[in-house]
Amino acid sequence: MAMKVFGQPMSTNVARVLVCLEEAGVKYEVVPVDFATAEHKSPEHTSRNPFGQVPALQDGDLVLFESRAISRYVLRKNSSELLKEGSLGDSARVDVWLEVESHHFDRPMAVIIYQCLVLPVYFGGKTDEKIVEENLETLRKTFRVYEDRLSRSTYLAGDFISLADLSHFPTAYYLLATPHAGMLDEFPRVKAWIDGMLARPAVIKVIEMMKASA
Amino acid sequence: MTGGVKVYGVAASPFVATVLVCLEEAGADYELVAVDMAARENRSPHHLARNPFGKIPAFEDGELTLFESRAISRYVLRKNNRMDLLGGEGGDLEGSAMADVWAEVEAHQYSPAVSNIVRECVIKQMIGAGERDQAVVDENVERLGKVLDVYEERLSESEYLAGRLVTVADLSHFGFTWFLMTTEYASLVESRANVKAWWERLLARPAVKKVTALMPAPGGVTTTTI
């Protein structure tokens, strides 16, 4: 039976799971959750994700939520080299940079994406440039660390691509759609790293799904 | 080679405290090397070489340097064969997935709310960074209440977040919850029977007791310890 992913591909958290499923070559089905009708708050959905968020994953009797936990499960189940669980040191480095992605990249990016893309397009609101600027500054600090890191190894956790790198792609993809994509010119290694990820077949496939569900 | 690992930071940091709990659970030899936060040692070149974001903890095991408390904790437990605490004993895919889920919940739902309460009510006073912003506290108390309602429901189904057995998902709550319980907002935990019982189970663990002995009592922390 194919795994079921609940949520829309345009969501960065859903896309994160989809890229792992694609990389692992796993059969899956996407079941949309309609935010416009508050389906994410329905008893049926909250029985899968008690915080009423997306994604959720169903694999037989197992139901999971939180995209990075789902991603680990999918990759681990398929013995993917994207986790490096055969090596204590390498897997630790994957864990480090996955934490960095959560706390130093995703956090400012979520605000920037909301202000620049979601608020004006979906809610007819006005971008708060002050908030955007504050979060761009935080993002710059993060990118400075990444630029240095990527001068020492090809990817974040080492000379191998891992979940830590791929976890960035959906959010990085949306950064390119904001008026602030140009900031990446200040960080050439980061830019090349993102471009490299966006060229992967699994990523290209998920981007098509993200565009189709927008 | 001594065989011991090094944790750079101070026990009063909720993130460092969680790593210490995992080291104690693993029975690992370790040394806590103080970082003088008041003197901004966390921004010094030698600390930035270990944690490029200038935060604590940082961690060294021989040639391996790590940062981010949750990554350090996983490494410590894996290295010391405590796969049970990662939910993955015997290669249990479901068990490890459930531990991962609730570890993410701590990181993305619980800690963002509780850390704001702890920062406003405890840490700012400790380091002399001003008075609490009650509006921020109130907003996060409401947020945390909703999260704890989910926990209350979850903990009616099992003794620990990931299931029958304790895992890193439970242990990673130690640091911030310790400080929360020193404030008037301890009532958020105390008013929820299952959450309260769960917290008390964690406090009763020998490893947790060892670390609570290192934690500051309310009002007992100087600027050099944060």
TrEMBL record, chain A:
Residues 87-214 form the GST C-terminal domain. GO terms for biological process: glutathione metabolic process; response to herbicide. The keyword Nucleus does not apply. GO terms for cellular component: cytoplasm. Residues 1-82 form the GST N-terminal domain. The keyword Transmembrane does not apply. It holds the Pfam family GST_N. InterPro entries: Glutathione-S-Trfase_C-like (IPR010987), Glutathione_S-Trfase (IPR040079), Glutathione_S-Trfase_N (IPR004045), GST_C (IPR004046), GST_Phi_C (IPR034347). GO terms for molecular function: glutathione binding; glutathione transferase activity. It comes from the Eukaryota. Its EC number is 2.5.1.18. It catalyses: RX + glutathione = an S-substituted glutathione + a halide anion + H(+). Keywords: Transferase. Conjugation of reduced glutathione to a wide number of exogenous and endogenous hydrophobic electrophiles. Belongs to the GST superfamily. Phi family. This is glutathione transferase. It comes from Zizania palustris (Northern wild rice).
From TrEMBL, chain B:
Belongs to the GST superfamily. Phi family. Keywords: Transferase. It is an enzyme of class 2 (transferase). It comes from Zizania palustris (Northern wild rice). GO terms for biological process: glutathione metabolic process; response to herbicide. It comes from the Eukaryota. This is glutathione transferase. Signal peptide: none annotated. The keyword Transmembrane does not apply. Residues 92-219 form the GST C-terminal domain. Residues 3-84 form the GST N-terminal domain. GO terms for cellular component: cytoplasm. It catalyses: RX + glutathione = an S-substituted glutathione + a halide anion + H(+). Its EC number is 2.5.1.18. One of its GO terms (molecular function) is glutathione binding. Conjugation of reduced glutathione to a wide number of exogenous and endogenous hydrophobic electrophiles.
